[in-house]
Amino acid sequence: MAMNAAQANTLWAWTLIDALAASGVSQAVISPGSRSTPLALACLRHAGIKTHVVVDERSAGFFALGLAKSSRRPVTLVCTSGSALANWFPAVVEANLGAVPLILLSADRPPELQACGANQTMDQNHFFGAHGRAFHALPAADASPSMLVWLQHLVARAVDQSRWPLAGPVHINVPLREPLVEVGTQSIYPSAPVCETVYPVMQLADSETKRLAQALAGKCGLIVCGEGEQDVGFAAALTALATQIGCPVLADPLSGLRFGAHVGAAIMVRYDTFLRAAAMPRPDWIMRFGAMPVSKPLQTYLDGLADTPLYLVDAGGRWLDPQHRASQVVRASATALCQGLSHHLDVAAPAEWLKRFEEAEHDAAELAEAKPPLEAVVVRAILDSLPEGGNLFSGNSMAIRDLDAFSGKGRKHLHIFCNRGASGIDGNLSTALGIAAGSGRASIALLGDLALFHDLNALVLASKLDIVLVVINNGGGGIFEYLPQAGLEEFEQGWLTPQNTDFSHAAAMAGVNYCRVDDVRPFFDTLAAATRGGAHLIEVVVDRADSVRRHQAYWQVASMR
Question: DSSP secondary-structure letter at 194?
Answer without folding.
Answer: P
